[in-house]
Amino acid sequence: MTDLIAQLRDIVGEAGVLTGADVAAHSDTWPPRGDCQAHALIRPASTAEVAEVMKCCHAARQPVVTHGGLTGLVRGSVTRPGDIVLSLQRMRRIENIDRDNRTMTVQAGVALQTVHEAAEEAELLFPLDLGARGSCTIGGNISTNAGGNSVIRYGMMREQVLGLEVVLADGTIVSSMNSVLKNNTGYDLKQWFIGAEGTLGIVTRAVLRLRPLPRSRNTALVAATDFDRVAGLLRTMDTALGGSLSAFEVLWNDFYRLIIGDGENHGVPLATDYPFYVLLEATGSHEDIDRQRFERALEEAFEGELIADAIVAQSEQQREDLWAIRDDIDHLVERLAPTITFDVSLDIPQMDAYVHEVRDTLTARIPGSRCVFFGHIGDGNIHPVLTVGKKEGAAVSEAKGIVYDALRKRGGVVSAEHGIGLEKRPYLGHSRSAVEIELMKTLKRTLDPHNLLNPGKIFSLQEAEQ
Amino acid sequence: MTDLIAQLRDIVGEAGVLTGADVAAHSDTWPPRGDCQAHALIRPASTAEVAEVMKCCHAARQPVVTHGGLTGLVRGSVTRPGDIVLSLQRMRRIENIDRDNRTMTVQAGVALQTVHEAAEEAELLFPLDLGARGSCTIGGNISTNAGGNSVIRYGMMREQVLGLEVVLADGTIVSSMNSVLKNNTGYDLKQWFIGAEGTLGIVTRAVLRLRPLPRSRNTALVAATDFDRVAGLLRTMDTALGGSLSAFEVLWNDFYRLIIGDGENHGVPLATDYPFYVLLEATGSHEDIDRQRFERALEEAFEGELIADAIVAQSEQQREDLWAIRDDIDHLVERLAPTITFDVSLDIPQMDAYVHEVRDTLTARIPGSRCVFFGHIGDGNIHPVLTVGKKEGAAVSEAKGIVYDALRKRGGVVSAEHGIGLEKRPYLGHSRSAVEIELMKTLKRTLDPHNLLNPGKIFSLQEAEQ
């Protein structure tokens, strides 16, 4: 190992190698805990250096865990003693912005928020957005196929990536830095690495697709009396808004009541006795025209008896106030602590029955448990948040089983936008067949035969990783 | 071979197997030529039958070419003597439409137009659209990652596919019939097969994503005096139309003049002396509101001196008349016959210089040659159409060399939306590196070690296929 570290020091320089207490002070998860188990942390400054590092690690059969912003929440970046961390923190340059081609070329370590700001400066939009924007990196967004707040309009991270450069386990550089929307020249290799959680290659650079910067925004909070109406509202608003619907966030009554409480924090924008609340947003190009369209769409929903009440934001402050209800996860977590949060997807027509089953089963089987629901319903994505009063133990396992088993029955998905990591590995089989998992392993074995890249994440290839 | 045919007859029934003259009467390309070289044509009626067929073919090391609608235009479905054709023509059932989930589940042999009609009946849109809609199949659209008329707004076929079922070379059924927008449970296997031109697996079923059905449409033909203004217009219109821009088709002067001619066929909607014409279309949700937005966007373009003249369609008839100019490829091909058409992509800032270089080099090196240009410029996609007065021979090869070499220099793409097939195989290396092509071959060898599925298409694994 000492020999290897010396070799790596030759490649990345003195400042690029941390060992001992300097590594232990790092974290490999979020919130930071400063308990990184890895033997060393290597910080290459270029793709060429990443490739050289991997050649050495490959020759030494050294497992490598790649680190971006560490905000994935599924223990996808945790390390074991003896692992080496490869951090992209020295590769955070925006290399190029092309306003006419509407593309941005970046190194993988750049923070999402930096990309937002650079795009806006060029009067363009990079649409992927999520809470961890200040810390998460583009490489991490790509490796986890991140979702977030505007998937309904712009798609997941996969749809924002035109070109990709990765380093394979043996140090081969695969540079597919495509910058056009249409490229059907053979297999689209980049797709293999997007969402692969660092198990197939190390993302070093990317070409990102940029969009027109919206000039207007309209936001409303509406109330609905049953889930069929929520589904009808999604259909109606998406049609009536002509493709400009950019958020459709649903808060179940239990979520809304818990956040609103006595009204002290957020006021009471709508009465607390409706079964469902929907936070709607549309982005567009003209203040007046878009406001008119938004109001007419809401009228259509009222006339169709899809909504029972509504409040439309009349200012940026009011808009922020409405979003603050949806985003007050801190308050939620505080009130329910210790919490277990989930990130599941299922067909919209199945959601109502799913939520009922989870709630009823929890109540019946785990006394004192409590579960609230909210989510990006426009994307089919629900985040159940539950508590059983304990951080770990049998009740926690049982609760997870209840949430995931009800999902499995309905063909649902145990990870919508966060990935599998170690956290959801035991449940991968709930959403993917044995044939699918075997095919994943086949690709893994082909590209990384010595199982060096983020070993044991998503699935296990060796008994030792179980 | 006779034994194998008997086995396959047992699987798919008497009506499912064609041999001898019945196969020769078939075509394996478009326009139909009735010169299919294959030994037999097998028509399974279900995924299970496809799997059984492939098990037998795998055991017999029998090469198989999958046939959809045969409209791919790159000789991706041509057969050799001794091949077997597997046709999806008996698998054209729409299994399910879910209005709330906005998904459609189909067998791969269903025609694109049938999907359009079924979606519309459910008041939804399947947005992929292209000229061959009546004959091309969903399986073919998936296997070629088809593009077409609305990529700027909705993306390629890849973006329309949520779930996929494929049969591997050894008959394994991989069923990934996901029906939600967000699914990060391990590798996204379907991405491997989309655009793989039938070389990695046989697509048998799919879950398609549907969109809101537009309620309004606005169309204009505008003229611009230089390419910088065309690029500026794209940026301006896409921003000012708030994401509703659904077509941005550019006709170079030579294309427009050739189609307009003496005005007999299409009238003369705009004078014929502008360097560029752009056919713009936006789809939306409200007749009045969208018309207002469209006119204001055009005003903004006029004020920015991006456009020199414009005609806005005032009726559905006028809209069709404008599109007829863009779509009159028959007339173009007739006037220039014999023609060679291309399907290339490159960065928008490179396009003007590219077109000039191709035109100048052709004129200088091939006397009597002629080339006109048009394309989906909003997607970075140009279709050069050229003639050298002959169907094949040295001048044709030289012309292809000129078109592709000028592209290679600029990092362009030899196939934007049609794929590689056999037609573009010699030029794959213009757009993809040796490392990329080797990685493609690695996946091919892993999934299809005996090279049975559409062998020799995209790239060659064996000297014999060169």
UniProtKB/TrEMBL annotation, chains A, B:
Protein's UniProt keywords contain Cytoplasm: no
Similarity field: Belongs to the FAD-binding oxidoreductase/transferase type 4 family.
GO molecular function: FAD binding; oxidoreductase activity
Cofactor list: FAD
UniProt keyword annotations, A-Z: FAD, Flavoprotein, Oxidoreductase
A biological process from GO: respiratory electron transport chain
FAD-binding PCMH-type domain location: 34-213
Source organism superkingdom: Bacteria
Identification of the protein by name: FAD-binding oxidoreductase
Record has Disulfide bond as a keyword: no
